[in-house]
Structure prediction request, 632 residues.
Amino acid sequence: MNINIPLKDLDLSTQNVRKTPPTAAEQAELAASIFAHGLLENLIVRPGENGRYEVLAGGRRLMALQSLARDGEIGTDHPVACLVHDGDGHEISLAENIVRLSMHALDQFEAFAALADQGLSVSEIAVRFGNTETLVRQRLRLGRVAPEIREAYRADDINLDTLMAFAVTEDHGRQLAVWSEISGGYVHAHHVRRLLTDEKIAANSKFVRFVGIDAYEAAGGTMTRDLFAEGDGATYLDDRALVMRLVQEKLAAAGQELQTAEGWKWSQAAPDMPYEAAQECQNVYPQNIDPTPEQEAELAKIQSGLELYEAMDNEDGLSLEDEEAVATLEEKYQGLENKLKAYAPEDLAKSGCMISVGHDGKLAVRRGLVLPEDQQAEDDTTTAAPATYSAKLQEDLGNFRLEIAQAHLAQDFDCAFDVMLFTIAHATLQVGYLCGKPLDISVQTTLPYNWSERFGTTGAELPPEIDISWLEQLPVPGFKALSAMPMEEKQRLFAYCTALTMQGRLGGIGGNDLHEIIGRRLNIDTAEHWRPTAETFFKRVTKSRALEIASDVLGEKWAKTHKDEKKAVLADTLEANFNGNRTPGVTPEQGAVAVRWLPEGMVYPVNHDQPIAEVATVENDLPEAFCLPAAE
Prediction:
């Protein structure tokens, strides 16, 4: 029989089969629905002790009613409609849960859309059903997809992800056009979303970031939001053509401004960098210039700040905040140094810049490009293509000629060697101006730009006995002069230029590193050429790390004796021991270990049992450009 029982007299039966508790969100949703619509389904109960009733089925509804009572929305004596059942409690609870058939998700989406059509707002629906407004908007959008596509979802011809992909737009015409195109085969959500947005552009596109959404909206552009995605990728700008027009206009203005401000002969703007066109150009490079008094003062100020932090580091070390401040100062210093370079007037007069949108959505500029028609004329060995030939014929003839030349060059080591040396010498030493690069290769020195300033070495300066005067000549006579050099001298120059392009890092960082094999083949003994000093190592690690190294190499007793020293004093003492000048307390054996010790990753692998090649002997007097200053 059906009776109304006061809420305070109802208890959850231990025979209720639903043991897994609902989530807080699920309970909030149910409570909101009961508060808005009342209890739509009776609880199933049986009499208990002392006039109370046990709830066999409807435990979630009971908890929702109890939460409403705690919140003061209903009273504890609120009448609850119940069906009293005298059957087996466990069986009744099981039957009530198993035979229940949940409504299809699409029925729910369409029901929400019907409520909205009746005049309920998103917020009203959210309150009545205990949902977030975002969830309600999503269900409304799904319930309003074109009917043909909704029915395909109901029939399991497409999945929920695909239905959500169709909901990226509310235009039924666009939805049905895409459905007509793809419905005969496998339908994938990603494919649907791409087809529906091919005329749009995502808000996280580099082009949108470049022009800005405000500028797009000011130009009359509209946007669509994908309710089922997050972040900038959930918003699409509907008019791709408008975005690209704004990009081109902004690039053109930036190019003209840059051309005028910096004095280039020309500027070219394109949304993406035209790399093929840039490859056809020759390059000119900026030269070092003297700083203005203001720049010199700023550099000195930054340098003073860095020295102050260095003194603090020598005393007690630096905190994390101090290290961040040092990094900021170093970045400022480098930025100022980068400004102390300028292009020569004669280079500006013949070169220009290409401007595009970078991957980060910011302006990307390639400066110092010399167009083919502006490149320096060669001697009478240059042959112009006949103007009467079509462009395609000229291209084909050029390819035939190239194939023949490649076959001959592959048979002539001396010529191939000279051409390669000519190309990489110009690229790495950056002396003179190269017009018409003979080989399609790109190399550059790997030495840091401020190497000589940091360590007092001469950077990429060549040993004086190597003649490179030919680099300053025009390419054709320069190549002839190089070809006439003795092979031994060319080989030395080739090895030197190759060394300048070598990539390297500490060992042990990655597996199967060819750099390590090269070092083994060269039989490099790093300890013979470099020793850790106070300036190059010990002052640049924490004091605790320096003491760990001292304990491992010089012994725990020595480390404990020196642990209270200032960092700078400790660094100087360690430099002495690790460079062969033993201090008191260091045994000869410990001293022998110290003079061979190197930081992790500095040692090259050695395999005397299975040498991979005949090893050349390298004496200690390496070329100055590759040596750090010796410890004093």
About this structure: The CA atoms of residues 27 and 64 lie 6 Å apart.
